[in-house]
Structure formats: structure tokens, C-alpha cells
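Sharing in case it's useful to others searching the archive later.

Someone asked me privately for the predicted structure of Two component transcriptional regulator, LytTR family, so I'm posting the question and my answer publicly. Question first, with the sequence:
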Amino acid sequence: MRHLNTLLLHPDSEVRATLRGYLEDVEFLRVLGEAVTGFEALELLEHVPYGVFFVGMELAEGVSGLELAQMLAGRKHKPALVFIANDESQAFSAFELGATDYLLWPTTPERFKQTLQRLRQFQAHYKEIPPPSWTEDEDETADEHTLQLPLGEEEEDRFLKALSQAWEFSNISRPVEIEKLPINMDGRTILIPYTQIIFVEAYEDYSYVHTASQKYLTSYRLKTLEERLRQYRFFRVHRKFLVNLEMVTEIASLPGSNFMLRTQGKTRIELPISRRRITELKKILGL
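And my answer, the predicted C-alpha cells:
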């Protein structure tokens, strides 16, 4: 029988132990690991093809179960998500993000059987990422044969012309980048205009994108966004912060040769500027 690799993601060791007990004799599920943070779960997912996550709503290190579900939303081979919750307040949001089940904890063996039934239904259409497979006929060392057919002079001219047109088209046909940042949220993709982004804050291997009204947890690394947004007047003022220079209203000098900048908006935001970056920033601003 094909198993679904299962991860137990919850900060409470007693909850994880109880889940292990419930799953011990379930033939189609195989527990392969435990974690307490969303970042640990994502790291494990890079190495293990998990088919099921049992996920606590509140996790360690600031990323909730729902935020983890948002990060997983764009994956082609997304594991089934069974949320473990203390109340029903977030059930609607969980199912909006594609939850397979939403368990109130502590649960009963009878209720847990319903979860297993739903996971069996999920298993019926779930496909793991297929491992690479090779046959002798496909081996790179196998002999290759090229069939050569002579072209007449007129056919050769047409072929060369078509090849030239294809080459020119491939060089001028570039994808147009819209000046908006796509962010997955609640099962939707939100497009945030670059002009609305005040600053970006590094968080582990992810980042928070801050606008005037909200902040969004994204799967982008700060370095990736720095490269993408540099041409739109974003500047890395600190190892943790990337700021939209169009939003900056003031640069303040602090004791100890330190600097800080402030941004516009109803809530004025102050961000530190590292010493080694202040010289470059002054050149950009013409100071």
C-alpha cells in the first residue's frame, strides 16, 4: 500500500504524542517527523515528499498555521492540511485555504475517524513528485542516430528565413513585468503596486512587506526583493530592511554616529541605517 508521509507540526509535545498514538495503526499514513515552527516544516518539505501536515493554529516563532497555509498555497504538490485548534473561530479561514479537516482539540477517537476518512479521499487523487526514472533506452550513453534529409535550394532558403525570424522573435519577445508584487493570501493572489510598499522587513528566510495599512508575510527572501525592486528606487538601508526611497521624508542623525530614516504616512516609521550604507545612500540622494 502506498503511504502518505505525515508531519506533526505543533508546539505542544503532548499533542504530538497523542497524534502519534492515533496514527500508530493507520496503514496508509506514515509519520516521518515532528516540528514546532512553520520554518522547520518548510525546510523538511524540501527534503521529504510529505502528503499530510497536522498543523497547530498557533506555532512558535511568529508564523501561524494559517500563514503557513498561505505559503503553501502556490505549490503544485501541496500536502493535505489538518488543522488542530482550540475553538472554531478560524475554521472558515482554514477551509478557505484548502484545509482537509479542522479538528477541535482535544478530540475523540470517533471524531478522528472522520479525519482519516477525509485523508483517504485525499490519498485517492494525491500524486507525489515522481522520482526520476531511467531505462536503458533513455540512458544518455545509448547510441544516438540523426536522420539527415537533403533540402533543395528553395526549401533551404525558406528554412533559413524561418529560422532567422524565429531567432529575432525570441530576442524581442520578452515578458513584460508589471510593477506589482504578487502575494498569496487566504487562497488568493494579491497584487501590491510597488508604489504602495513602504518597506520590506527580513524574517528568517522570508519577509514581511509593509504598506500603509497592512503587512504581508511572503515567501520572498529579502535579497530576491532587493534585486527585483532596486530599479524602482528601493534601497537596502540595513541587513534587515529594504525601503522605498519615494516614501522617505527625513534622515536623522543619532548619537554614536548612527542614522535613522523616517517615512511618510499617518504612522511615521523609523528605520535604522547601517553605517556602511549611509555613504551610498547620501550619494543616491545627492547629499
